[in-house]
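User: quick one, fold this
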Amino acid sequence: MAVNDVERCEIHEVHPDLVLKIRDQMPDEDELYDLAELFKAFGDSTRMRILYALSESELCVCDLAEVLNMTQSAVSHQLKILKTARLVKGVRDGKQVIYSLDDDHVKTIIGQGKDHIEEH
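Assistant:
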């Protein structure tokens, strides 16, 4: 999309009260950076497949690899990224680690994202 394809105001008129209100409510740079990093973790279709599978059930790496038709090594690599982003957690159960979504917020984000793309 070319820059000229974006709709712009025909006049330059700033609304100072609105600008100040938004500036006051704007999160600080560290928080915005963390938010951008969170959404980067969602920006990969393999990680989204893992998150979607875990939104349906807790799974071990073996089961995830089977569901996604991937190697355990490839799944583990993606799980590490998702754990770092605090989107999934793992609990050791004997010789296995059972993975689940970190909390209900993750399932909500996935559901709302899915709803959004299905609207268009």
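User: anything notable?
Assistant: The beta strands are 59-60, 88-93, 96-101.
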